[in-house]
Amino acid sequence: MRIVGGKHAGRDLTSPKDFRVRPTAEHVRAGIMGMVGEFKDARVLDLFAGTGALGLEAISRGAKAADFVETRPSSLHALKANIGLLRMSDRTRVFKRDALPYAENLPANSYDIAFVDPPYESKMLDRVIARWLAVPFARILVAEHASTHVLPKGSQTQSFDETVVTIYRAVRPTTAL
């Protein structure tokens, strides 16, 4: 596994030997980054971060900073190793916390881009999306999920074999003239 694009393209990432960890495949990450578009100076949140590949990829492509939320010890070890390998400790924060309460307590507009990639078929994804729909804590929410997991309609969806990426974009309030 490696960074696909940007300043750190081609750099290898470490992954835990834990079979329960499913890092986002390189072709899916490349697709996600293309779907999101611009990362310049973005504040990024990587929920259920695992190896941190999504947030680190975003920084490689111009994001200002990324916060990672993860609880699994093997994933935290790999995440911290990847941050060190890429020398990104000054642009990252790691929270050893449960991603659901973390997301449920975020105020609106806390981040520019949030990635959410819990275990496939988990209802945790539904809860994070429900929270985001009620309180859009990021301008863009990127949900990675199994093709069999039905979600509320997003602004953009793309399939990658058994993986689907659904993107939600916050509606900007209109101003009266």
Specify the number of helices: 5
CATH architecture annotation name? 3-Layer(aba) Sandwich
Q: Which structural class matches the secondary elements?
A: alpha/beta
| Average pLDDT number | 90
Widest sheet: strand ordering: 3-2-1-4-5-7-6
How far apart the termini lie comes to: 50 Å
CATH superfamily: Vaccinia Virus protein VP39
Beta-strand fraction estimate: 15-25%
CATH topology-level name: Rossmann fold
- Overall helicity: 25-40%
Number of strands: 7
Rg, rounded, reads: 15 Å
Task: Label the overall shape.
Answer: globular
Helix/strand order: HEHEHEHEHEEE
The biggest sheet amounts to:
7 strands, mixed
CATH class, please?
Alpha Beta
Poorly predicted sequence stretches spanning 5 or more consecutive residues: none
Write down the domain tally.
Answer: 1
